[in-house]
Amino acid sequence: MDIEIFPHRLLNTDTAERLLNDLDSLEGIRRMVIQGPRLTPVEEGGPEHRTMVLKGEEVTIQVKPGRILMEIDSEEIIEEIREKCEENIPFGYNIHVGRFIRKQKTVSDTLKYGEKLEEISEEMVGLTDQNAQLGDRAKILKRKKEE
Amino acid sequence: MAKYYPGTSKVAQNRSNFQDPEYTLEKLREVSDEDVVNILGHRAPGEEYPSAHPPLEEMDEPDDPIRELVEPLDGAKAGDRVRYIQFTDSMYFAPAHPFVRSRSYVCRFRGADAGTLSGRQILETRERDLEKYSKELLETEFFDPARSGIRGKTVHGHSLRLDEDGMMFDMLRRLMLNKDTGVVEAVKNQIGDELDEPVALGEPLDEETLKNKTTIYRKDGEAYRDDKDAVEICQRIHVLRSQGGFYPE
């Protein structure tokens, strides 16, 4: 099932980084999409700080985090997510349950990737908009090795 | 005393205050004449006003009783061009909003033309009068540097969520919050051209003050439905409009 975290203000990079790292400590989140308006280029006055460190890996964000879409294993985890949000989003937020990330490959995917479509794993489906290159927008963060 | 807006809520009172020319607007900041000219971007500070026609005194105008009755604006007398200032007001408790601006402008500013759109509001008049009116609009409670924007173009942003620091979204980033001083600075003029020197517009008002000063009914502030008097008048106007439009044979 999917949920959407909808903060009442657009997050800046630091807050988003804190929130995402906190969420990372929870079990049961399969994948995540950060959606929002594109950041203005630096040369046009946009913010210079646009990298986050998630799971020790540096990720450059291209949008101002406006919504965080998540695919989760079960409904029980929502309360834990709410706690994390409560700590990191002081100006209010909503959590909506629904279907926010596409799960199936479509005809558009076939047109875009052709025969290579078979090679794309189910996990990568629906993470970006159709016009973007998947490699530019999606990042796979390795799970921590179990000790 | 004239009644400018129905309703008993704080929002209704604020709306009346803006429209009432007898009401003295609270002055919240100082903006110099030169800075106003810079923000408007129509001419360089100190430059002569470019003219659209010769001064009225030099023009041979036809005899007309109305011309004798109506005193022309200073700008019209001098033959100034017509220029504009345009504002965008955030839905998140901005002090003013387009309709209130228009109604207030026609009540307060002589010879000014107001244009209302959903997300922006424009004031057009002769250049030297415009500068006078703009100064008033920027210095008084009509304006909050975080929730209002001076935007000649690329106005998008009034209905978007605010940034974390409380600033309204602006594609061109004309007004920036200086994190060190806590003061909002205009770094570009209203159409997005860089200014030589940033113009300080003061600190943003806090949430509590904004909720007190706002002219916007909101469910999380003062809801329109709770203002029974305002709703009653609004419904009465709708009914009378419908009945007035109905034309039985």
Describe what this molecule looks like in 3D.
The complex is a heterodimer of chains A (147) and B (249). Chain A has one domain: Alpha-Beta Plaits. In chain A, 24% of the residues lie in helices and 22% in strands. Chain A contains four helices and six strands. In chain A, the strands form two sheets. A four-stranded antiparallel sheet of chain A has the order 2-5-1-6, with helices on one face. The longest helix of chain A has 12 residues. The radius of gyration of chain A is 16 Å and the shape is globular. In chain A, 15% of the residues are buried. The model of chain A has no long low-confidence stretch (mean pLDDT 85). With 249 residues, chain B is of the alpha+beta class. Helices cover 31% and strands 15% of the residues of chain B. Chain B is built from eight helices and seven strands, in the order H-H-H-H-E-H-E-E-H-E-E-E-E-H-H. In chain B, strands 2-3-1-4 form a four-stranded antiparallel sheet. A three-stranded antiparallel sheet of chain B has the order 5-6-7, covered by helices on one side. Chain B is flat and about 55 Å long. The interface between A and B is medium-sized, with 15 and 13 residues.
